Amino acid sequence: MTTTVDFVVAGGGHNSLITAAYLARAGQEVVVLDVRSEAGGGAATEEILTPGFLFDTCSTGQTLIRVNPLLSKDELGLVSEFGLTYIEPDPVAHVVFPDGETFTMWLDVERTIEEIARFSAADAVAYRRMLDEFDEVKGVYSSYRFTPIGYGPSIDEALAAHPAGAIWRRRNVMSAWDVIRREFESRHIQAFMSWMAFMTSQPIDSPGSGYLAYSLVGGRQRSSWSVPLGGSASLPRALVAALEAYGGSVVTDTLVTSLITEEGRCVGVETEDGSEYRARVGVVSSIHVKDLVGMAPAEMWGEGFVYGVDTYDEGLSSFASYYAATEAPQFRSSGPEPIGAVSAGTAPWSEDVIEFGRGLRERRLHRPGTFLLFATPTLVDETRAPAGGHTVKILSLAPYECPDDLGDWDTGKDVLAAEHFQTLRDCAPNLTEEKILAWKAKSPVDIEAGNPHMWRGTIHGGDRGLAYGGPQRPVPGWASHRMPIPGLYQTGATTHPGGSITGGPGRNAAIVILDDLGMSLDSMVAKGGDST
Ligand SMILES: Cc1cc2nc3c(=O)[nH]c(=O)nc-3n(C[C@H](O)[C@H](O)[C@H](O)COP(=O)(O)OP(=O)(O)OC[C@H]3O[C@@H](n4cnc5c(N)ncnc54)[C@H](O)[C@@H]3O)c2cc1C
What we know:
With 532 residues, the protein is an alpha/beta fold. Helices cover 33% and strands 17% of the residues.
């Protein structure tokens, strides 16, 4: 079977759907292909355990995409026309420290600051100062993230031109830990800030992670750990509705196996069942670059590109477990009552978090530093479970190759998940065994099996340190979404500004492709779809 359209989009995560929807809105005929049974990739909400319990099997928090003009300006009508609604949970987060102390971050900044002052008056002052300083420059960062590489100044140039930017040029190349240890004196507040800074799986001692020490708390202090009503999949469902309204379509259960090239150009893709999807204008991919290079002859990519992909660091792998429960975890707190929180966790001492990150590279779990995030979105969204029921997800990290003490992942994943669940119960003693109706663990191998774009179980498209971010992502010289094979564009987490649910790679790719078609995304949106 052969299908011919203007643009074939290979992979239907939220980023590709965003690119596809802008292209369709500009009048292009677009088809999106995805191997999963529903488009959306890591923005998935699925009934994986017990009827009626709808789990966010990957992402839950979608704070980062809310400042993308896609949503802040509602450019595709996802909010006004296609029903996308965000909830801002309060408290924002709650953590338990190794010594049993606890800390709660509230949406009301004064309340958070009061909570910090319980540990250190100086740290309370430092926190306010950090937020104020971040407020001054956050627009610079946002604009950098939501502009394709090559279409605006580098982050260094943009900061150099900003009145408050000088010190940020240094922070930008510092590590998150270097920032945290200088700004805060309390071991507990350092631990909380380290837990937050590690949220995107970037080791907190890696150069270039300094910005994360500010941006993760800054964003959440403003709009909490935002979750879409109905589950993470509400975002791609709104995108698919928009895409279809603009004339595009999605084909699921379809694995793209190779690129079709003719006369030096990419002119389509071939799928596992032998079908061809041909593109009159171009092919857009969110296939992981490590797989993509195998989908066309090596000489078409060029030696430099292939070497760049070979040396591209895939980042740290993730581990997750899911529990259908009859009660939400109620965490030990500093107050008279336990506390429920959509986002909670254990915050190990910072030196252990650093060691945990290092160990992952060496196929070793430094258990005192185990990163755990407990997500219970049903606390604020009753549509996701039967009355009184809750979905609890525990997110952590683990090496792709199973550590020796766990044997192999087939059995080792249940052992590790049981350790994580025991830690959760230590923090929330109400969550006894009989409150759990069903559970399931996913090792990094399972995560990859469920989505080939999560290469080796990594969930952010690759390391986001200095060497692999911005103009270096995925390969120096090829960061503007145009690939070495003419007619082929890359989007998704392996492109700027990287992983998480930001929509940045998707919208940036749309800007570049529309530019190549002689169109401007901004004027197309302003004119309500008329792209000329
Ligand atoms: C357990 C877990 C928890 C997470 N929590 C969060 C969170 O709370 N907040 C957050 O922001 N992020 C979170 N993430 C990360 C986030 O899900 C990803 O960074 C994000 O989904 C990347 O989006 P994307 O559009 O680039 O690609 P993806 O969402 O990975 O989508 C890529 C799509 O391409 C398809 N595909 C790939 N190869 C092929 C092929 N050859 N043929 C056909 N289709 C193909 C895949 O099936 C997939 O649908 C989490 C991820 C996991 C696994």
